[in-house]
Amino acid sequence: MLNEITVMIYCLKYGVFCPQECILSGIMSVKGKKVLHMDRNSYYGAESASLTPLEEVYKRFQLPGSPPESMGKTRDWNVDLVPKFLMANGLMGLFEKRRFKKFLTFVAGFDENDPKTLEGVDPQKTTMREIYSKFSLGQDVQDFTGHSLALYRTDDYLDKPCIEAINKIKLYSESLARYGKSPYLYPLYGLGELPQGFARLSAIYGGTYMLNKPIDEIVVENGKVVGVKSEGEIARCKQLICDPSYAPERVKKVGQVIRVICILSHPIASTGDVKSCQIIIPQNQVNRKHDIYVCMISFDHNVASKGKYIAIASTTVETNNPEAEVQPALDLLKPIDQRFTNISDLYEPTDLGVESQIFLSRSYDATTHFETTCNDIKDIYKRLMGVEFDFAEMERGHNDIVGEQD
């Protein structure tokens, strides 16, 4: 029964979970693949999980004792280990706002196939630095636009053709217009709902999902994967998608990320007492090579007890003192009731996986939005299937299958 299947495995050495595998399991099931999704943990997620009750968070971070009574009912908590959403705010002067408005109007109407909208700009040759200069936008506005709207992590994009950045800004604006207050979505009860949702999608289309299933060995013959060994049995497969921890000889360490989960009894100062927000501290503002991210959610999202907030600060590690690197973010959150600090290694595959048919995902980076994760999913899909991912094609396939079931 388990012969000739695509196997998705995750939840590894440190309970690490990459939703890339779970999302792909849903996609591959919809496309008619036989999928077995194995999970070492007893719950969905792990690094992308939302831990509940609050005692589980204390246990994971090896804090002594139990949560104090001031934290409220511990089962009201669903603490994301890795937040992934974005809401951004920027402040600028009156004249800067006018110039920025002209810039946004230009971006909104920009169509590389319509010369009337280009205003002399060559989408493939004019750099984004030149675009900013065209509208006389200062450094602070450039930082806000490039890092909070277009979601770039470095300033390398400034000297590249402007078309990609313009499309990213248009996506942000269009998403904002759709809902009015924020261009981003966040699931109630935490991000742990996402892997559960894709697991259900996989199951609907014939996928098999197994919790509490240890992975003993990836079986390889003649350089290609042929199965996964678990508790003395081998599930035969032609393809394998997994987290870097399963195949350390096929990945390389590319850095580290620090994340500090903070429990607060108040919203972040100077944010208008909002119940959720994100602050991106651009690298230039703090003399760093990487941005610092702060993501805040609250009891409004069913992730904390009444009156409580969860803020997670994260950044890419650059020195031997990671906690000092994230301090500018922590200063914004004071006073902090409780904090949980985690420093994790970042890995990426050393080969495409085409020869071995073992396709590895990348570790979660420091960003608190799904941009890089989605890019990784599309990259794995292309390596796995040999073609670019086409969402429209998947939607058609989904409708066809639903029609057959009806």
Automatic annotation (TrEMBL):
It comes from the Eukaryota. Belongs to the Rab GDI family. It comes from Periophthalmus magnuspinnatus. It is a peripheral membrane protein. It is found in: Cytoplasm; Golgi apparatus, trans-Golgi network; Membrane. This is Rab GDP dissociation inhibitor. Keywords: Acetylation, Cytoplasm, Golgi apparatus, GTPase activation, Membrane, Phosphoprotein. One of its GO terms (biological process) is small GTPase-mediated signal transduction. Interacts with RHOH. Interacts with the GDP-bound inactive forms of RAB3A, RAB3B, RAB3C, RAB5A, RAB5B, RAB5C, RAB8A, RAB8B, RAB10, RAB12, RAB35, and RAB43; binds RAB3D to a lesser extent. Interacts with DZIP1; this interaction negatively regulates the interaction of GDI2 with GDP-bound RAB8A. One of its GO terms (cellular component) is membrane. Pfam families: GDI. One of its GO terms (molecular function) is Rab GDP-dissociation inhibitor activity. Regulates the GDP/GTP exchange reaction of most RAB proteins by inhibiting the dissociation of GDP from them, and the subsequent binding of GTP. GDP-dissociation inhibitor preventing the GDP to GTP exchange of most Rab proteins. By keeping these small GTPases in their inactive GDP-bound form regulates intracellular membrane trafficking. Negatively regulates protein transport to the cilium and ciliogenesis through the inhibition of RAB8A.
